[in-house]
Fold this protein.
Amino acid sequence: MVFVHGLIGTLQTPVLHRPFAPTPTLAPDLLGYGVERGADVATD
């Protein structure tokens, strides 16, 4: 299962994934949020 979120921050928290166990879950952070908050989001 892949979580796609809006502009609310990270979904990398176990409490959100736990109800779906044992289904594998992914919640990649958008650029500028969570672990990607330091990503260079400049465009040309």
